[in-house]
Specification:
Blueprint: E1 3-11, E2 14-22, H1 29-35, E3 37-41, E4 45-49, E5 52-57, E6 66-70, E7 86-94, E8 103-108, E9 111-112, E10 114-119, E11 122-128, E12 134-137, E13 147-155, E14 168-169, E15 173-178, E16 181-193, E17 198-209, E18 215-223, E19 226-237, E20 241-251, E21 267-275, E22 278-287, E23 292-295, E24 298-301, E25 304-306, E26 308-312, H2 326-338, E27 343-345, H3 353-362, E28 365-369, H4 378-382, H5 386-399, E29 405-412, H6 418-431, E30 436-441, E31 462-467, H7 473-476, H8 478-485, E32 491-497, H9 512-520, E33 526-532, E34 537-538, E35 549-550, H10 563-571, E36 575-581, E37 584-589, E38 604-607, E39 610-613, E40 624-625, E41 637-639, E42 645-648
Parallel strand pairs: 26-33, 27-28, 28-29, 29-30, 30-31, 31-32, 32-33
Antiparallel strand pairs: 1-2, 3-4, 4-15, 5-6, 5-7, 7-13, 8-12, 8-15, 9-14, 10-11, 10-13, 16-17, 17-20, 18-19, 18-21, 21-22, 23-24, 24-25, 34-35, 36-37, 37-40, 38-39, 38-41, 41-42
Helix pairs in contact: 2-3, 5-6
């Protein structure tokens, strides 16, 4: 089909109107609706997915545009593999006629990095930031029952860090219809009483009213669909305004199941918003009940001292870019859990919602961070908090309910950063005063940083990065130096490693065991380690090998395990030893002085033809031996309650 239309093109990321011949047009009518997915949400909300086939170009004056899938990254395609700069997306869609009388929003879950959006020739606005959601009210712009044209200019020029900055619309695009009154978010927090076995649940709601008159709404929330401990309140929301509502309830002992990395119990809170007896909006969110505490030498989870390890994971794949499809997310998390990954500062930017969901389900604790990185970061140098505050707010508002998140970080490896860190940490606490708020340091062990100029002083925990590139004193003795300056702070090594060690499948990290021992032995204040990194990742940062991948990972870029995978799985094992001697299985727990160390609850030993449920084993307990004999040479594996085999006989 050839046709002439009045379209909207770009100068920079601004628009000029022009006539052009459009080719390869996505078909309207059935083709448009087939490419979109219309879903009716409970309680008066509806959604139209705009995922699927879009048109794309890096030259806004081009007569023809290529086709591209959204969500996606243009640099996964050979023709655009190295393109840095602007890329233009467009597509058409039919908005349902039955949405008349509703408020319509166009939502993008993420676009990297700067995005300017136009609908039907009208520029909606620009969002800066590549990892968090944004939306526009398009009620007065969208054509209900007719064909609409949306165009996005994405620009991946902005670069911080050593990872590849995948360009484009990397998350879902959705058109959403609601009544005037709706729930913007509900933030759920729990406080377990560990002695009594009960828990208090606090819910903070943000309500919005897009109508011209104030409206009285009824809130009704239930946990797991049960009437017990329900929450309810009538609220007046001002015209074209918002209201914050805070409610609380209590769960009895019989209903409390704590969230733990080995026992990731989850609840669901469903809230209905009604006006005049009619449900106009419904929202449902999962949450967990757990208690995280810090002491000068301990991390306590639900009252238990735990020392844990993990892996930094870069959101990177030559096949998927940084779009984070479920198949990749689940495989990566499963591999990290099998390699005893339970606590980490996962990466230097907000994580994909489906990844956080899976961490909630499988049990991994993380610190989440905004992408402020390096000694020369412009936001640190100028102490300009406009964008960092925006990114932190967008991340916390979206991710607040995830029990896997135990804290927020305001940046990574900064220098001359006391003003920036102190201001951003104070701001972050206004958004979430109940989680750990910190930053990731690599200056604390340096002579020119001390209690007066390093924000470790105002952080509740020292997250510290250290490497043994040149066997420097400040790397080998980082734990001791940082502890001597800040004896009241527990230390978590948010990054540690030796150097890039190669991309071959037989590659190992030479010297990592000695470094691990030096940094942890006799240091009870070290609560854990996170290896840099789980996976090799694409990069053009200085020092990247000819492969185009930074080869720090225990798995390759395409997720094949290197020899280092089993090396680290063994180093991070939750038990000191697991052996079979003369048919007897012997398992020796870690001591409280080792990393990792935590109580093994609900663990099992399995082998071909047999299985034993282990008793609870605390750090320092005597070795456990089996009464049941197994055949000589039998491989016995240790399984977590969530089904991961984390150790085995040799």
């Amino acid at each position: 089909m050839r046709w002439t239309a009045r379209a909207w093109m770009w100068t920079g990321c601004g628009f000029i109107k022009r006539n052009l011949q459009m080719k390869n047009r996505i078909q309207i009518a059935a083709g448009l609706l087939a490419a979109s997915v219309l879903s009716a949400a409970a309680g008066g909300g509806s959604q139209l997915s705009l995922n699927g086939l879009w048109q794309f170009t890096t030259n806004a004056e081009a007569a023809t545009w290529d086709s591209i899938i959204v969500p996606g990254n243009w640099d996964t395609l050979p023709a655009y593999a190295t393109h840095k700069g602007k890329g233009w997306y467009r597509r058409e869609f039919v908005a349902p006629a039955e949405w008349r009388g509703k408020r319509i929003r166009l939502k993008f879950d993420a676009v990297y990095h700067d995005a300017t959006v136009t609908l039907n020739g009208q520029e909606l606005g620009t969002h800066i930031g590549g990892y968090t959601p944004f939306e526009f009210d398009v009620t007065d712009v969208v054509k209900l029952g007719g064909t609409n044209s949306v165009t996005v200019c994405a620009d991946n020029t902005y670069r911080r860090g050593a990872w590849w900055h995948w360009g484009g619309i990397s998350r879902s695009v959705t058109l959403i219809a609601n009544h005037d009154a709706r729930i913007v978010w509900q933030h759920i927090r729990s406080e377990p009483d560990l002695a009594a076995g009960t828990a208090r649940v606090f819910v903070r709601y943000k309500l919005a009213n897009a109508g011209d008159k104030a409206v009285v709404v009824s809130l009704a929330s239930a946990i797991d669909g049960r009437k017990e401990s329900a929450l309810a309140k009538r609220v007046s929301v001002p015209a074209r305004g918002e209201a914050i509502v805070e409610l609380e309830t209590k769960l009895s002992k019989s209903r409390v199941r704590l969230w733990h990395f080995d026992h990731p119990n989850l609840y669901r809170l469903t809230t209905r918003l009604s006006t005049g007896g009619k449900v106009v909006h419904e929202q449902s969110d999962r949450f967990g009940i757990r208690k995280v505490e810090l002491t000068p030498d301990s991390l306590l989870l639900n009252g238990e001292r735990v020392r844990l390890n993990g892996y930094n994971r870069v959101s990177d794949s030559r096949k998927f870019g940084n779009t984070e499809p479920d198949e990749l997310v689940k495989s990566d998390v499963d591999m990290m859990k099998r390699a005893n990954g339970n606590l980490t500062r996962l990466m230097h930017y907000p994580q994909a919602p489906n990844l956080l969901d899976y961490l909630d389900e499988k049990g991994m604790m993380i610190w989440c961070e905004i992408p402020v990185w390096g000694g020369d970061d412009p936001f640190v140098r100028t102490n300009d908090l406009t964008l960092p505050r925006q990114w932190m707010r967008e991340m916390i508002e979206r991710d607040y309910n995830h029990p896997c998140i135990i804290g927020w970080s305001v940046g990574n490896e900064m220098e001359r950063h006391l003003d920036y860190a102190s201001n951003m940490m104070a701001f972050t606490r206004t958004l979430d005063p109940h989680r750990i708020v910190t930053h990731v340091s690599f200056t604390g062990a340096r002579r020119d940083y001390n209690r007066t100029n390093d924000p470790i002083t105002i952080s509740p925990v020292a997250l510290y990065n250290t490497y043994s590139f040149n066997n420097k004193v400040t790397d080998r003795n980082a734990a001791t130096i940082v502890h001597d300056k800040w004896p009241e702070k527990a230390i978590f090594f948010s990054e540690f490693g030796i150097k890039q060690f190669g991309g071959s499948l037989d590659a190992r990290i030479n010297g990592i065991e000695e470094m691990y021992r030096i940094l942890s032995e006799g240091k009870p204040y070290v609560i854990g380690f996170s290896l840099w990194t789980f996976n090799d990742y694409r990069s053009d940062y200085p020092g990247t090998p000819p492969s185009g991948n930074r080869e720090w990972g225990i798995v390759t870029e395409d997720r094949q395990p290197k020899a280092a995978y089993e090396q680290l799985r063994k180093l991070f094992s939750p038990v000191r030893s697991l052996i079979v001697t003369n048919g007897v299985i012997r398992l020796e727990p870690r001591s409280p002085d080792e990393v990792p160390s935590f109580t093994l609850r609900g663990y099992k030993l399995k082998w071909d033809g047999g299985e034993i449920a282990l008793p609870d084993l605390k750090p320092g307990d005597a070795a456990w031996t089996s009464r049941k004999l197994v055949k000589s040479g039998t491989v016995v594996k240790l399984f977590t309650p969530t089904g991961y085999d984390v150790a085995q006989t040799e």
